[in-house]
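Example (one chain per record):
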Amino acid sequence: MTEKCDRSIPSSYPESMEMTTSPAELGAAIRERRRRLGVTQDELASSIGVNRRVVGQLEKGKETVHVGIVLRAARAVGLNVGVESRG
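Predicted structure:
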């Protein structure tokens, strides 16, 4: 049996959290937070063990950036990334 994918936001989704639905949105959120903190791409890259080019790709939403790098970058700028069941 195949489940139909429901893309609606669950009613229990916290208002203080922003739902991100694409690599571009997640990259933009990381970039916005990094800039708000006054951190350069070079500084973020150094703190997560990659070069600045990778951070640039991540912030532009390039889908081939490894998920581990994305999670390290989010954590480094103080963002939580979570998974929640929709049903």
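Caption: The radius of gyration is 15 Å.
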